[in-house]
Amino acid sequence: MTNIAISSGHGKYVPGAVDILDEHKEAVRVVDKVAEFLKSSGTGVKTFEDTTSKTQNENLNTIVNWHNKQSRDLDVSVHFNCYEHTSKPMGTECLYVTQADLADDVAEAMAKSGGFIDRGPKKRTDLYFLNNTSKPAILLEVCFVDSTADVDLYNKNFDSLCGAIAQSISGQDVAPIPPQPPERVPVSQRPTLRQGDEGSDVLDMQRMIPNFSGEFDGDFGPTTLDNVMRYQRTRGLGTDGICGPETWQALYDHKLPVPPPPRPPSALTAEQEAAITRIANESKIADYNWKDRGVAPTGYTQGMALSFGQSYLRLQGEHPAAVEMAKARTSSDKDVLNLWRAQFDALHMSNERAGDDVLRHLYAFMLGSGMRESSGQYCCGRDQSASNVTSDTCEAGAFQTSYNASNASKPEFDDLMDEYLDGRSIGYIDAWSEGVSCSAADWQNYGSGRGAEFQRLCKEQPAFSAETHALTLRNLCNHYGPVIRFEVELRADAEQMFQAVQDYMDSVA
Predict the structure, then answer these.
(1) In a shared domain, residues 97 and 200
(2) What is the pLDDT of residue 264?
(3) In which element (H, E) is residue 346 found?
(4) Which one, of 258, 303, 314, 304, lies nearest residue 429 by Cα?
(5) Of 380, 362, 391, residue with least CA distance to 475
(6) Of 114, 141, 170, which residue constitutes the final position of a domain?
(7) 435: phi > 0 → left, psi -120 to 50 → alpha, else beta; which?
């Protein structure tokens, strides 16, 4: 019996290409489905995802070391290609050093089953995986994550594509896998599902959601809520976490992801996002045990790094809100840089001159502030023990800011809010949400009008919550109890991470 070791390229903390699709997440999805097909044919299969490595070199070594420890006949690594965002079809290919015939067969199988352009087998002698695995090896480039044509074909033909991969690498006929889930129940008979529900309809919904992360258990808990909201967000649906008629219909129709809108000028590119995420995950502060809060969620550290990168870009463009954040220390006791002057000075963080240093020092403080306020939970709802439930006084997001703080930073606060409402700024929610589970109570907003919109934006666009927190710290820092009680941890290694982000941004400017 043939034994195959198959792994997903890159890793949980070492992202690959990200555009319409996330390379690593889709590679995991393909590996799992291909393994399912292989098992149906009686082929021995072992799978691997790197969930621990923090650097590219560590990631490559971890994957290759895992493969070389397996008893197998063939090593397979699953990747996706990336070039530039386009609507044109780009195609599929298979890379090899010694397995030219197999790579040709696999590339042809992927092309036919997925409807892709066949780019054929490609000999590559510069890839660590192909050079260092001790058994015959191939590396799949399934399709291009930045081609809308490829992505549409990939989503439409996912099961047949994975079956073709399994059959071509094993040489065995694979049994068809029944569609998941059965769609015999008319949409009109599906109930509206919310967190707390359970049963067969929840189980069907879980199975219908593409790339569902978690167990198919029929329990609509926090993990299922996160999956529903991700699905709604990527399909252009109302993002409320409730599976009603519109969401059910989209699931039945196998609705394809909505292509992301063009990035606004102040947004980071996909390449910058990936690099900054890597900087955050490799930083010392990522593993720091915050007092009474523990280690920050992965999403919080990388989300803050991305938010700083965006604010830094804004400052270079003299954006009014960023200029306000980065102004020199004032003499006001409502300016956190003045109230905490002694603590900043003790760490050699001078804030006497407006500019980059001030912005970086402010974000270092904010990293500790968010851990104190919410333990780094971007979707944190209001303090349920407090009575502030009006739209303007209800706190929301990682920093527990309320809309009435806007009065101290006009017009920058409201202008910034309008940018996010209009789609001229993005909030990097996918990065912020990693390792965070949200409850239905967290997503609840209170009141109506501008205040309710502020609450929603803080949670759905976390970078917005960071930037409005920065404005509030500079002009109304007594808005936050932990700030005036000196409970926030201000750390040099937090500032060092933001310095690394700034250095990177300068290097690619």
Answers:
(1) no
(2) 80
(3) helix 341-346
(4) 303
(5) 362
(6) 170
(7) left
SS (H, E, C) 266-282: CCCCHHHHHHHHHHHHH
CA 477/CA 118 separation, integer angstroms: 59
117 and 45, same domain (yes or no): yes
Structure-block tokens of residue 250: 């989209």
Query: What is the pTM assigned to this prediction?
Result: 0.65
Query: Is 175 a domain residue?
Result: no
Tokens of 174: 């694979």
- State whether 303 and 203 are in the same domain: no
The parent domain of residue 88 ranges over 3-170
CATH number for the domain including 15?
3.40.630.40
**Residue 4 three-state SS:** strand
Structure tokens at 403: 């809309």
Asked if 211 and 306 sit in the same domain, the reply is no
- Over residues 21-77, the pLDDT tens digits come to 999 999 999 999 999 899 878 899 999 999 999 899 999 999 999 999 999 999 999
Q: How far apart are CA 469 and CA 476, in angstroms?
A: 10
Residue 134 tokens, joined: 């001790």
Task: Quote the number of domains for the chain.
Answer: 3
pLDDT digits (tens, 9 = 90+) for 105-147: 999 999 999 999 999 999 999 999 999 999 999 999 999 999 9
Choose the weakest-confidence range: 185-194, 236-245, 377-386: 377-386
239 and 380 part of one domain: no
Under DSSP, is residue 32 helix (H, G, I), strand (E, B) or coil?
Answer: helix
| Residues in the chain, total | 509
b vs e for 287-315, b when ≥16 Cβ sit within 10 Å of the residue's Cβ?
ebebeebebbbbbbbbbbbbbbbbbbbbb
Cis bond leading into 210, ω under 30°? Answer: no
